[in-house]
Amino acid sequence: MNAYVSKMKQKKESRVFERARKTAEETIRDPDKIRNVIDTALHMIGSAGSSSPFHELTDKFQAIVRLVRAYVNRQYRIVPWQTVVLCVAALIYFVNPFDAIADFLPLVGFFDDAAVLTAVLASINKDLNAFLEWEKSAARAAEEHLPRVVDAVFEEIKDGTAQNG
């Protein structure tokens, strides 16, 4: 009986995620909807805090959000369409309070979110790592273009004599 229940739960999760994937394809094309999903996901992960079981995945989750945001803002487009769809589907699944296990159930509701996110991360790991490398190189390039502050000793010249100031 346990194996049957487990199999039924997996089927339900995959149906819910498949709906999220289809919704993701539509959402990516609508700037208002995708920004709403991003904002909601960031708010939820921020409110989950470090005490949630989801905490271990927080960095990767935030990287997914940044990847989607960079894609939507046309800053980073060298990523397969399917990767973007999977990322957005994971975000939609996460923000949906009525996914396979309702998130309003204390602790339990986040376990299916973590399972889906883990599966998506396994699928997009190479693309996500490439994005993270792109982020690092973009940050280094931005630092190189910042003006450097130079310490200098100024001397005040009065009446032909120099005085340290």
Helix-strand sequence = HHHHHEE
Rg from alpha-carbon coordinates: 23 Å
Classification by helices and strands? mainly alpha
Number of strands: 2
The DSSP helix count reads 5
Oligomer: single chain
Task: Indicate the percent of residues in helices.
Answer: 55-70%
Could you explain the architecture of this structure?
The chain is mostly helical and 165 residues long. It is elongated. A hairpin with a 2-residue loop joins strand 1 and strand 2. Helices cover 68% and strands 5% of the residues. It has one domain. It has 5 helices and 2 strands; from the N terminus they run αααααββ.
Chart the SSEs and their pairings.
Layout: H1 2-28, H2 31-48, H3 58-72, H4 81-95, H5 108-144, E1 155-158, E2 161-164
Antiparallel strand pairs: 1-2
Helix pairs in contact: 1-4, 2-3, 2-4, 3-4, 3-5, 4-5
Q: What labels would you give this structure?
A:
165 residues; mainly alpha; two-stranded antiparallel ribbon; 5 helices
